[in-house]
Structures are given as C-alpha cells and as structure tokens.
Specification:
The protein is mainly alpha-helical and 174 residues long. It contains seven helices and two strands.
Length: 174
C-alpha cells in the first residue's frame, strides 16, 4: 500500500526544523561555516533561513551590537539604491521628453485627444498626475506616447491606445 500523503505544511515544518538543526550545528563550529550555510540556503531559495544564519554568524563574531550595526548598514545601502534608481528613472524620463520634443514636427496640429500637441507644461502636469507616474513608471507612459501607439487623454490624464480612443471616450473617460 501507498504511504499516506503528508500535508504540505508538515513538509515545510520539517524542512524548517532540519534547517534549524543545521544552523545549530554550524553555530557550534564558527562564523565561517554559518556564512557557508547562508550561501547554500540562498542557492536553495531560502532567504529567510539564510538571513538567520548570517545574523547568527554576525552575533557570534561581534555580539548584538555588531548585528545592529550590520542591519543598519544594510538598510542604508538598500535606501541609497532605491534613491539612485528613482534618480535614474527621472533622468530617463527627461531624456524621453527631450526626444519627443525633438521628434515633434513644427506644424503639428492640436486635437483634444493628442497631448503631444499641447504645451510641454500641460504634458508635464498630466505626467505627474497619471497613475503610471505616481507608481514610478513614468517611462512606460513616455515610451508608449512617443512611439505613437498611445495618447494621453486631456480629459482624464489616462494613457490610452490609439486603437481604443472611441471606446475610451464613450465608456471610460469622465
């Protein structure tokens, strides 16, 4: 007969217990073995257990103060990386705006559904109030707008496919 199937929670719980036993064994040896274990856990896709092993290695080498310093430094590096990414996204958006302005023909006609024909201040206002801009994805909006596949609706500020203009006006735009 087949053995009864285990519940997924039981397997996960048993794996966690086994990992904790490995961490306990590594603690008794030295921090290097804990760091080796952390690398192994990362490669197995277990970041929480890997972090636990790193914290234990840091604690065994330098105490609680070392853990606090290390975690503070990691937090600072993470925040700096986020700020650098935001600055790079903003710079890319500015370059895209410049490219759009350069590519715009001098006799470009204005229409209520074509934001490219509006003054740049209006386009910038729409970009800042759009959902994509608010969620940090302004470049997507600029790319879709610049390749001509979409337009920015002046009524609602939405980015709309040119193929869906009539439906947008009839059903979605307030």
């Amino acid at each position: 007969m087949d053995a009864p199937a285990r519940a997924p929670d039981m397997d996960t719980e048993m794996e966690m217990e086994m990992e904790m036993e490995m961490v306990g064994e590594a603690t008794s040896t030295r921090p290097k073995s804990l760091l080796d274990l952390a690398r192994q856990l990362i490669s197995e896709g277990k970041p929480s257990q890997a972090l636990q092993a790193v914290v234990m290695a840091t604690k065994s080498a330098g105490g609680d103060e070392a853990v606090v310093r290390t975690m503070s430094r990691a937090r600072e590096l993470y925040r700096n990386k986020l700020q650098a990414n935001a600055a790079a996204d903003e710079l890319a958006s500015l370059f895209a705006e410049c490219a759009i302005n350069e590519a715009q023909p001098p006799n470009f006609q204005s229409s209520p559904f074509n934001a490219a024909a509006q003054p740049m201040a209006t386009l910038t206002d729409l970009q800042e109030s759009s959902i994509l801009a608010k969620t940090g994805r302004k470049q997507i909006m600029l790319d879709a707008f610049s390749d001509g596949s979409s337009f920015i609706c002046l009524q609602c500020g939405g980015l709309v496919s040119v193929h869906r203009k009539d439906e947008h006006v009839a059903y979605w735009c307030n």
